[in-house]
Amino acid sequence: MDTVVKRLSLVLLMPVLFALPAAEQQSTPTFWELRPEQISRMLLPLPENNQDRYTRLRQYFSDLHCGSKLTDEQLVGKQGEEDLICVLPGKSPQQIIVAARYDRRWAPGGVVPGWNEAVMLPILYNALLAQTRERTFVFVALSGNPGQIAFFDRLRKQRGNPPLAVVALDMLGLGTPWFYASSVSWAASKKRERREAREQLLSEATNTGRVTGAAGPSDVPLTPVQDSLLIEAGRIPAILVCSHASGIAPDQAFRQDFEFLAYFLCRIDAKLASPRSSPE
Q1: How far apart are CA 115 and CA 43, in angstroms?
Q2: d(CA 226, CA 243)
Q3: Do the Cβ atoms of 264 and 257 come closer than 8 Å?
Q4: For domain 33-271, is the CATH number 1.20.200.10?
Q5: Which value, to the nearest 10 degrees, does the dihedral of the CA atoms of residues 39, 97, 202, 100 take?
Q6: Tens-place pLDDT, residues 230-276
Q7: Structural contact between residues 258 and 121, judged by C-beta atoms closer than 8 angstroms
Q8: CA Rg, the chain, in Å?
Q9: Which of helix, strand or coil describes residue 93?
Q10: Are strands 175-181 and 216-217 parallel, antiparallel or unpaired?
Q11: Which residues contact 154 (CB under 8 A, 6 or more apart)?
Q12: pTM to 2 decimals?
């Protein structure tokens, strides 16, 4: 890890700006992008067990400017499993949650490494540091199914306003990025503001796909793991971003997913409407 830490501290960052239509020029999102060789060193070699994954993720967050004062750890199991939580403060305390599981797991079709989406979290944290954000982003690396249950249970019990949105990541770096809106939170909610937030997440994801060249919503059925991330969000408006194998080289696929996610998070930070205080 010492070698990785030194290399991370020496590699320069590249600012990224996307060309936008004239109507959106004044709010062009800006984010930092790591160099390809740096990302490759973070992704490989694949950690052998979940404890190694946790240790590396914690180091990556630290290397990419999430210090101890912004880090929280939540013990979720008898074997010492922990969720890792990193906060990126914004002008407003209103939260946008960005979550992914870091465990190696089984899913229909075989084993899911679960590492690409976990590594994406500290990379996105660093990316959003390029500008002062309007909302507070909370990046969460979940320790498997017990971790996601524990985190969302804690989220539901916390005082104050619930998060504006949950952006769940799964199975990244396989091919073209796709996205799914949370039908569970939409159907369960009787409040217009939640339905509107869901539709806004979909709209901003569609616009992000248009600008970055991502494919957009998919009709491929979700796996139980992917479904569970949306189900646990409950009534919080949620969207899942994942990718499906399409013959694209892994490094190119990961870069496409990163660009889609970084741009999308910038958009919803600036555009996602705050809930109205008056009841319906």
Answers
A1: 7
A2: 11
A3: no
A4: no
A5: 50
A6: 889 888 899 999 887 777 898 999 999 999 999 999 999 999 977 65
A7: no
A8: 18
A9: coil
A10: parallel
A11: 74
A12: 0.87
